[in-house]
Amino acid sequence: MGVRMIEDFLARTNVGRCHDFRDTADIIAKNGFKTFLGITPNVTNWSSDGKEFSLILDNNPLTEFVELPENHTSLSFSNLLCGALRGALEMVQMEVEVWFVQDSLKGDDTTEIRLKFIKKLEDALPDGED
Amino acid sequence: GYAVIAINGETLTSRKMPDGTQALAYLQNPDNYPLNIRFGKPKLSINEKITLASTFHSMYAIACKLSPVSNSSGIEVLETGTFRLSCYQTLTGIKFVVITDQHQPNMNPLLRKIYEIYTDYALKNPFYSLDMPIRLELFDLNLQRALEAAEKNQQYNANIPNSTI
Asked: What is the rounded distance in angstroms from the CA atom of residue A122 to the CA atom of residue B1?
């Protein structure tokens, strides 16, 4: 899904290439999430080397009317958000790891997704790269 | 070389008339005379288009490397005596190519519109696999509409654009 969503996003918005991971984080939170889910998560918890950050979602539109049943209390209901983020960033030549730190559906206070930058995929565009 | 592309107004596909009869047989049958035969440049087959597109992809990469200045884009416009080719590459590496006559103004708005149509009608279709030729009705329909709108606005003479990866 992420692989296809990124094209939709790029076709509609005129954002150019991000210069560093912080740019990426801002654009994901302010433009990406806004366009597809209508919410703007907060970007926080930057690691010291600037390669990891967290997205705090105040309310997750996917789980607005959802409750986990008794026998599936450890189900990662919104895990597709992680996959979509990973796929989308892969198409713009960034390999990242995405996982849930907290999930309000499972009883935590907030929903927190953490993104970690692994590496830049160099064998992609033949354009001049920075 | 020219080839027969239509007889009596019916377009031929791989040497057959629309109803399936062999064109050569039809031409030899005197009962069918008089005939109206149209000659012209035969259209490129799908395989030829794929081959030419991949060649263009390589040339695009070569163009980036040829630049004396760093950080150059690839081929944006390619002009010949009879046509002009405009190309737009997305941040994800997909290239959209439009072939028009030499007198057309900037093609970038049309190329971006085609990008949008691609994301709406090809990518959002669950049966479409990435990197395959696009054989989707809605995509073709909307593409045709966009081309017609562009023609009306500015008297284009564009061929059906090819999209490549």
From this structure: 45
Distance from CA of B121 to the nearest CA of A (A): 10
pLDDT confidence of residue B3: 76
Q: Helices B108-117 and B137-154 sit at what angle, rounded to 10 degrees? A: 160
Residues 100-159 of B with CB under 8 A from A: 112, 115-116, 118-120, 123-124, 130
Q: Inspect the interface and report whether the beta carbons of A128 and B118 lie closer than 8 Å.
A: no
Contacts of B91 in chain A (CB under 8 A): 10, 16-17, 92, 125
For residue B55, the model assigns a pLDDT of 92
Q: What is the ipTM of this complex?
A: 0.78
Structural tokens at position B76: 């944006």
- How many C-beta atoms surround the C-beta of residue B77 within 10 A? 10
Interval A14-63: pLDDT, tens: 788 887 888 888 888 888 888 888 888 888 888 888 889 898 888 888 88
Query: What's the confidence (pLDDT) of residue A2?
Result: 87
Do A127 and B130 count as a contact with CB atoms less than 8 A apart?
A: no
CA B41 to chain centre: 14
- Cα within 13 Å of Cα(B43), Cβ side: 11
Q: Is the pLDDT of residue B93 over 60?
A: yes
Does A126 contact B67 at a Cβ distance shorter than 8 Å? no
Output the pLDDT for position B165. 37
Closest-CA distance, B164 to chain A, in angstroms, reads 14
When pLDDT is averaged across residues A64-84 and rounded to a whole number, the result is: 85
